[in-house]
Amino acid sequence: MRWGVLQFPGSCDERDALMACERTGAEARLLWHEERDLDGIDAVVVPGGFSYGDYLRAGAIARFSPAMEAVSEFAGRGGPVLGICNGFQVLCEAGLLPGALLLNEDLRFHCRQVELIAGNERLSIPAKHGEGRYYAPEGVLDELEAKGQVVYRYAPRQNPNGSARDIAGVRNETGNVVGLMPHPEHAVDPLTGSTDGLRVFEAVAAAGAGA
Amino acid sequence: MPKARILIRPKEGILDPQGKAVERALPALGFEGIEHVRVGRMVELEAEDPERLGELCEKLLANPLIEDYEIEQLDGAA
Residue B58 domain-assigned? Predict the structure, then answer.
């Protein structure tokens, strides 16, 4: 299995994402934002950072990059895609995931370890962002919940940004595209306190294997 | 080329913490009786074909899920 990790001007978490992919026992390589060729890539990470300076809106410009056009096609064919933080914002802007990420309710940039609920699991993963307040219209939220598309939720009293219904991460209807604000790639080594992030990468890889 | 100004603001009903922060600062400065402050942004541009500005707003300048936009044609365009 080989992961491709996108790199935009302004990305900053792509190296950790590469390492996280490798820690799951897979291979991984960087994909520069001008690349369109995803041959030999089995799964894609759209990493965190501030792509293209996050001008206009976070993720708004990155979605038009050649690499993202290729990723949209890849996702359309059922290829697994994981968007982290800025990558989640990019996937929402690209229409690959429902909803949008708004400025944190308290206007502060938060950087801290949060507890996430993923089905029956609890994961301890760092979150660091200023624009992570998940928003979708009420009807869309109801539909997401009904279809099991809310895959990561902040544990009670852990919501750092005012996200609707404590939503930290969602997936698309077919399950091959997943996005979340917290950073699983920073939780893959006991040295930093948690290796729970690996489970996020493994879940996305498994979704691809089942597609 | 014809000039246009595009105003983009958070949709009605979406919490706008920037607007709230500005609103809360006002009484301390002696500005009473101001409410419903919303902070958006403005884009000025010159467009060969102003007919396409709506599409431009939908695709890039605004995110229609969370923002409303208004296009003002400047320098005398109808």
Answer: yes
